[in-house]
Amino acid sequence: MTALELAHRIKTRQVSAEETILQALQDAKHSSDLNIFLHISETAILEARAIDVSIAKGETVGALAGVPVALKDNLCVRGTRTTAGSKMLEDFVSPYTGTAVQKLLNAGAISIGKVNLDEFGMGSSGENSAFGATKNPWDTSRVPGGSSSGSAASVAAGIVPIALGTDTGGSLRLPAAFTGTLGMKPTYGRVSRYGVVSYASSLDQVGAIARSSHDLAVTMQTICGHDPKDATSLEQENTFTVALERDIRDLRVGIVKEAVGAGNSSGVLGALEAVKTQLEQLGATLTEISLPSLETCLATYYLIACPEASSNLARYDGMIYSHRGNFSGDINETMMKARGEGFGAEVKRRILMGTYALSSGYYDAYYSKALKARTLIAREFAKAFENVDVLLMPTAPSAAFKIGEKSDDPVSMYLTDVDTVAVNLAGLPAISVPFGFEDARGAYNPSLGLPVGVQFIAPALQDERLITVTHALERATNAMFLKTATSS
Amino acid sequence: MSSGFETVCGLEIHIQLSTRSKMFSSVDANYFSDAPNSHTDPFTLGLPGTLPTINKAAVEDGMMFGLALNCDVSGFTQFHRKNYFYPDSPHNYQISQYDRPIARDGWLEVNGKRIGITRAHLENDAGKLMHPNGENFSLVDLNRAGCCLIEMVTEPDITDGEQAKAFLQKVQAIAQALGISDARPEEGKMRCDVNVSVRRPGEAFGTKVEVKNLNSFRSVGKSLEYEVERQIRLINVGGRVTQDTMGWDEGGQKTFVMRTKEGEADYRYFPDPDLPPLEIDEAWIEAVRVKMPRLPDAKKADYVTRGLKENDAETLSLNMQLSKFFEAALETYRGEAQTVANWLNGDVSGWLNANELEIQDSKLSPENLSSLIGLIDAGTISGKIAKDLLPDVMQGAIPVQLVKERGLEQTTDVGEIEAAILEVMNVSPDVVENAKKNPKAINALFGPIMKALGGKAKPDLVRELLNRALGLS
Q1: pLDDT of res. A488
Q2: I need a labelling partner for A223 at 20 to 30 A (CA). Which of A123, A402, B228, B420 fits?
Q3: Please, which residues 49-78 of chain B have a Cβ atom closer than 8 Å to chain A?
Q4: What is the CA radius of gyration of chain B?
Q5: Is residue B245 one of the residues assigned to a domain?
Q6: Is residue B1 a part of any domain in this protein?
Q7: ipTM of the shown complex
Q8: B46: domain range?
Q9: Do A358 and B87 touch (CB under 8 A)?
Q10: What is the pLDDT of residues A314-330, one digit of tens each?
Q11: Is A72 among the residues known to form the active site?
Q12: What's the CATH number where A443 sits?
């Protein structure tokens, strides 16, 4: 059931919010083999009862009243642990709630818990968590994709209809593609980052995972908006629900030449062909577009994300609230030991790379050059959008891979993000839409196998256009690709 | 300089702004005498997910300061992160400015010489570490962490300690006049580092030494003079100055090495991705400019046109509170402005210094000072009596009441004065004879007569009656 259907039934008292939340909590507990939830809410039932009381009294309730949601554990919620998947923050209880979460809660949504992620958002598979790897509900021997692994898995498993996550280099879209869900990363600045545990500030953006374009539209309508607490947030009117009603006749779709070649699995290529056919049937026109700088994006991404991370994560030093360990010694020794013990291997690798790239003598060669490359890719996108309304390319070159398959090879793991990082560098909105499956022989299959996704990218601030495209496809396919893992 | 060397000195000055909230968060910045760590919020503590937002009042303070220092404040200004690990800064980076400071390329004139201002930038302050005696732990107070600081850097245009002190006084006066800071070194609200080297005229710059954390203008002057002497002595015996960071030993009145160049950190400056560049356009600059109060130089010029001597005008204009007081006193005083200046720069300042007070901390009101001087002008009391009354007036007494209570009005009773004259003439007949021949000797009689009258007689009248008694008029 979608969030909006649930909300309607709760509002019309066909079912109580309490029953709904109880069910979600039970589903969460039964999913423990997937290692999705790091923390289950103890107050969710009370919040549900309060909503039932409001409804009984005839009071106005929010659009998502009583709807269970899951929150990536790098989103701060007052009075709950916010670990960011790290031992470093194992015992950190946030004294405040971030803006995006607060807005969702204000709309009546009820958080049933905080979900797993790659430590500080650093990972493409969901394996880099201090609390163990998240598993893919479609095939528990496979990764769900990361870093919003728990967000995608909780929606794919049918536990919640909506989950919030963050996307720094593909962290919502990649897990969405691997779990057959919708994953949207809005334009940089449309959702406040206040209350998001920073990984790379100039790339991080809050977004959502859902299984219906209506749910996604309502979520975006709810969480987007200017926030005086985030200096990078933008003023822009939200028209997501209106966008659902538009069609895509004459929509100009640009196929990104550099991204649709032989590097992709046949399942992914099959999904691309299928979606192209569908788009044309709906009246859209397809053209080929070239983004020559795309191949530099992965290097550029790591040369910007890691330096920012090296500085953002400096605050975790064991002094005030972060992991300290049982050490004594002088200040430097204490900090070093706390950081040595509190951070996982991938986090340390990125801090080291970032520190190096910012060091005197290397700054110009790495960080400064990456900033220039970033400007270049943003310009290429802007130029492409002079001729097309949206861009189409894969979300990832393959379907979900096996747990452990890439753990010993960081570079091959980084390559998982090859199709997603450019969007973050350019600050653009993008969405991953599931469009079929890859079967056991690796071939495209419209109904069986592992989900594969395609990615649509819109110009800055045209996030609503992605909802229009997604909804048109969803309607045309009878939502056949938007089922839960358990119902397949 | 007779040594054959010239001094090359530049200053780095930190001024703590008196903004209501901190530089990048809304927590109350006025922590003075409050319990440790009571002025913190999630951002100050560096909690995950918190973000900085720029304090607009601090930016405008920076703009005003820049404009007052004849700097360019237009265009984009940007914040960078200065990365280093230390527990007085929970983020382990300071948000500061690097290649786009709020103010650039200015100057300030001191005693007829222009000192170049390289830049002034905004940043956040660190907290305070405390090391309890005999304990094996340290404590951190983060009340100051995140407070607004302006750091300004001068060109190496300063040539001696006196000039450095005069420059600092002027900067302090500007900060106070703008109302952006108390700029009191003794409270740590104005701190100074001195960069100093020596060279023979015409030669390239010598190796510079930095003397850090000077907390009085006096120690800036002293440490500068000490360093110059040390460096010249070193070079003269064939030694080489090394690029060290020094401290100032107040007790021993000498510099000491704090750390050597090799220990210098790589701060990995990069633009703070949480804070987009800020554009300062002409309209904003104008809006700030019209809000700017009068600066010391303008005040001084105004005082001179009101008839003040150059040095009195200078002294008053450099002291924010004194100049405010001066201007207020002139509102009610009808005589010469110079007379008020004489009192303020003379007896009033003397009393304040002796009592270690600033004018605003005393109970002297502009009205009472004006009234005290007015009583002299009206002939009600003598200048001497007025000076005697000052300590009481400084402590809040009202001059008119004092004079009335103590019966200090000047006597104009001719009979009483003539009686006193006769009395004094009778006891010193030889002085009288002398005075009759030599008018200058009259003072030998005048003094004792005034004394006999308790100082309350009007001097002109006494003189007139005495002359008549001596048959001189």
Answers
A1: 46
A2: A123
A3: 49-54
A4: 30
A5: yes
A6: no
A7: 0.96
A8: 6-286
A9: no
A10: 999 999 999 988 777 88
A11: yes
A12: 3.90.1300.10
